[in-house]
Amino acid sequence: MRFIKKTHYNQDIQLFKHRGQLFWYGALGVALLLFPLVLSEFYLGELSLVFIYAIAGIGLMLLTGYTGLVSLGHAAFLAIGAYTHAYLLAQGWPFPVSLICATLLSSLVGAIIGIPALRMTGIYLAVATLAFAIIVEQVLIHWVSVTGGFRGMAVELPSIGSLSLSDSIAFYFLCLFVLTCCLFLAMNLLRTSTGRAMTAIRDSEISAQSMGIHLAYTKTLAFGISAGFTGLAGSLLAHKIGYLAPDSFTLLTSIQLLLMVVVGGLGSLHGVIYGALFIGLLPQALALLRDTLPPVLAQIPGLEPGIFGLILVLVLIYEPQGIYGRWLKIRNYFEEFPLYRKATHKRQRSYLRTERLK
Amino acid sequence: MSLLTANNLSLAFGGVHAVDDVSFSVNKGEVFSIIGPNGAGKTTLFNLISRLYDTSAGSIHFNGQDISQVPTHRIAELGIARTFQNTELFEQETVLRNLLIGQHVHRRTNLLQEFLFLPSARQQELSFRKDVEDVIDLLDLQHYRHQVIANLPYGVRKMVEVARALCIKPSLLLLDEPSSGLNPEETEDLSFQIEDINQEVGTTIIMVEHDMNLVSRTSTRVMALADGKLVAVGSPAEIQQHPEVLKAYLGE
Ligand SMILES: Nc1ncnc2c1ncn2[C@@H]1O[C@H](COP(=O)(O)OP(=O)(O)O)[C@@H](O)[C@H]1O
Ligand SMILES: [Mg+2]
Asked: Domain count of chain A?
């Protein structure tokens, strides 16, 4: 166990709570900066994709993991970000301006979607967001003058001024930089009033109201912020896939995003990273697995979504706190060894709430 | 001087008159207790004052202002804080974060300052934390600061809820059965803490409570309710002797 002597309230506010943490995150940062020296172009590309997923995941985590609002339509915000960015670039807008405008537009649409979603929770909200995603898909197909319809549209190469960001190393650093900024923003949000108001709504709407939290405003805000992050990820994704078509953003994409935050661990930003690694690298693992399977099994259509679904169900049953929760338990085991007790992570007492207001 | 006044307050759920034409007034600085058998309408009365329910008839004035139409989330800002009979805490958060959420009404930062954690945001966090620590000291919660609510024993949860309400710095505090589920020792502590909150912090308290011992030790006045109707208001001693009150408790 580590005991930290605290002498100032600032210590509880810091992003890094103690030297050890600072050291390990520093080491991780250095490793990430050195990767381009050792990794092949293919794996750099895969890592860039993981970073992009993580940015989108931050958005969905803020909404689902922290505010408690489930969305089955986040692929729509990915699409809005991607298409807006590609369209503005094609109109000759500079890359950074276009990126920011795509983010803001996704955010605005998110906030507008948030308004009718205010009265809904749980499964109803999930269905409503799903319906929204389907509408967006239809718009992408039919608004041919902007989106190119089924034919799709090519995405221009990223560059800032004369500096090209299109080769895999430059793009890797671009994604890493944006992800770092997004993590910083999200962590700040979560250690101040608005972030706390979001978690309050997740845990008890009645109490949140009695603490002076405006439910409608905070939920709308959460939707807007969430959609903004996801839209930003979408604009980067546009460059990654190079050519946008409506079938790049389907229900399966939305489910993958949800899978990412649930498998990673709801209610933690660490979970976003673990989840992004998981869904970013799983297709590779499945491809390898496919090669070793007998052809009869390997040819089954829908193997990939099937395995995604199976993993989601298994995680919900056996480790509702996701990969990050499992990691905390393992770490705890080693820190307390040999004193660790099996019941450490069991709820000690749970209370029946007989007279809930709802 | 009266802080809260209810005039002919009523609320019916279908055919059940949960609160039926109740009028009373609570003075600044009082500890005003509400007693009555289960189902008398005590919790419903609190839900009316904290605007979780709309009144079907009558009005509530707080500090001279009619609050019967005020939106729910504005009640805390006006200076009314409450606890819940079976606790409604933010279960997955630590005690510290629960109390910081209690400070929400005092925030002055905007979204940009929070996203960038500008010096104004840091300053605000530090001042929130200082105020939270004062409440933690007042209610002896030092040991639990970093613990997650879901792992805490019931007695502690009850105190955390009182602490969270105090973080609003309310002028009126509503406590719904604060001693239910507490052991005798915790109840003893509670009576001192209620005195501290009332006298040192200067908060007016309305308390729903079954423990007559606690009620008579702390309260200036007591109101008895039965079947949604007001039975009697008076000093603790008067109420305990009141024939109508005894009848309400013992039945016919
Ligand atoms: N949300 C509700 N819907 C329907 N009936 C309710 C509701 N809340 C309370 N009641 C009824 O109102 C009456 C008063 O309840 P309550 O205020 O909880 O009593 P107390 O707190 O005094 O025990 C009871 O008969 C109860 O069944
Ligand atoms: Mg009650």
From this structure: 1
Mean pLDDT of chain A: 84
| Span between the terminal Cα atoms of chain B, in Å | 38
Subunit contact A13:B124, Cβ cutoff 8 A: no
Q: Which residue's C-alpha comes closest to atom 20 of ligand 1?
A: B39
Q: Which two tokens stand for residue B193?
A: 């803490």
Residue-number span of the structural domain to which B197 is assigned? 1-79+170-252
**A204–B130 CB contact, under 8 Å:** no
Residue A356 lies in a domain: no
- Is residue B207 a contact partner of residue B194, using CB atoms and an 8 Å limit? yes
Sign of CA dihedral B64, B69, B72, B74: negative
The number of the ligand nearest the C-alpha atom of B180 reads: 2
Q: Is the peptide bond before B236 cis (omega within 30 degrees of 0)?
A: no
Same domain flag for B131 and B15:
no
Partner-chain contact B88 A197, CB within 8 Å = no
Residues in chain B where the model's pLDDT stays below 50 = none
Our answer on whether the CB atom of B36 is closer than 6 Å to any ligand 1 atom is yes
CB B100 within 8 A of CB B132: yes
Instruction: Give tens-digit pLDDT for A80-124.
Output: 999 999 999 989 899 999 999 999 999 999 999 888 777 777 788
In a domain, B84, yes or no: no
pLDDT in tens, A198-218: 999 999 999 999 999 999 999
pLDDT at A352: 40
> Which helix H or strand E contains A114, and what residues bound it?
helix A95-114
- Could you say which DSSP state residue B148 is in? B
- Asked whether residue B124 is domain-assigned, the answer is yes
In a domain? residue A62 = yes
- In ligand 1, the atom with minimum distance to the C-alpha of B36 is 22
Whether B111 and B71 map to the same domain: the answer is: no
Query: Do the chains contact at A357 and B52, CB–CB below 8 Å?
Result: yes
Choose the closest CB to A188 out of B82, B97, B114.
B114
Q: Which residues share a beta bridge with A163?
A: A160
Same domain, B201 and B246: yes
Task: List B residues 177-206 in contact with A (Cβ-Cβ < 8 A).
Answer: none
Q: Which of B100, B126, B153 sits opposite A196 (nearest CB)?
A: B100
Pocket test for ligand 1, best of B22, B44, B229 (most atoms within 8 A of CB): B44
Q: Is residue A80 part of a domain?
A: yes
Measured between CB atoms, does A250 come within 8 Å of chain B? no
Residue B60 three-state SS: strand
Tens-place pLDDT, residues A5-62: 777 888 788 887 777 778 888 888 888 888 888 888 888 998 999 999 999 999 999 9
Tell me the pLDDT tens digit for each residue of B127-162: 999 999 999 999 999 999 999 998 899 989 999 999
User: In this structure, are B44 and B148 located in the same domain?
Assistant: no
- Domain membership flag for residue A204: yes
